[in-house]
Amino acid sequence: MTVFQRFDRIRIINLASRRDRRAQMTGELRRLGLDRDTRVQFVDGIIVDDKRPFRAPGEKGVFLAHLSILTDAAAAGESVLILEDDVDFTPAAREWEPSPDCDVCYGGYNAINPDSLEDSDIYGAHCMGFSARAVKELVPFLTGLLKHPSPPPIDGAYVWFRRQREGFSTEFATPIVAVQRPSRSDITPSHRLDFVPNFARPMGLLRGFKRELRRGRLTFGLPEAIVVAVIGVGITIAAAWHYSGR
User: Fold this and answer.
1) CB contact at 8 A, 36 and 64
2) What is the dihedral of CA 76, 80, 86, 92, to 10 degrees?
């Protein structure tokens, strides 16, 4: 059994406007033989205009998207694995599995204190799994945070839940089974060149190059360094020309 077989449903958050991410995510699913798995569904991301009480609209949208998935799972009495659409799976995804009594599963994460994961603040909620009983408790907990004067983003909310609710078992994939691929973000501010005509493509090429390096499909030698340098210089010159003409 793998981390994917452990859950009754698998849900992937994807904004309709991000067809690029959906295509890349479909490729990841196909690579692991999950593209035709009936448990897997893409769900629409949530866009809000009013960020309150969160710090940013994107942060609130992600929070609400996770909460919506958990609410549906709670109604069905099922466990759920929540993925965000910028996930790449590592080789460990074919091997690691949480124990049968695991309630909260971190498939991918960044820990402030890697030597003490249970006590550490955790950043990243791009691959989170929850047992049916954890789902049942999470829904009212997260709903309550919507009335908090300064609620944390969803990754912080999961940390709060684990610290305030006793009796739930947490496991961290080691090594991690999912990483976030280099991609223009819809939550945090993107590089302004992403929104300048003719710049999005080269910015995407640089991110794709970074992704392939991280996945081990490319080695970084002199030829690769030259390619990156040429693209970087081209972007710099074009950017200087674009902004100097304003």
Assistant:
1) no
2) -160
pLDDT digits 0-9 by tens, 27-56 = 999 999 999 999 999 999 999 999 999 999
Using alpha carbons, select from 164, 23, 41, 158 the residue that is nearest to residue 104.
158
What distance lies between CA 245 and its chain's CA centroid?
Answer: 38
What's the pLDDT band for 67 if we cut at 50, 70, 90? Answer: very high
- Please spell the DSSP secondary structure of 122-180, one letter per residue: EE--SEEEE-HHHHHHHHHHHHHHTTSSSPPPHHHHHHHHHHHSTT--EEE-SS-SEEE
Pick from 1-5, 110-114, 165-169, 209-213: least confident: 209-213
Number of domains in the chain: 2
Q: Answer yes or no: do 29 and 146 share one domain.
A: yes
Q: State the DSSP string of 92-125.
A: GGGT----TT-SEEESS-EESSTT-TTTS-EE--
Q: How many CA atoms lie within 13 A of 204 on its CB side?
A: 10
3-state helix, strand, coil in the chain (%, to 5): 40, 15, 45
Between 212 and 148, the higher pLDDT residue: 148
Question: Tokens in use for 107?
Answer: 């498939």
CATH number of the structural domain spanning residue 174: 3.90.550.10
Residues 114 and 146 reside in one and the same domain: yes
Residue 202 and residue 173 share a domain: no
Q: Are residues 75 and 167 in the same domain?
A: yes
pTM: 0.78
Which residues constitute the domain of residue 122? 9-180
- What whole-number distance in Å separates Cα of residue 21 and Cα of residue 181? 10
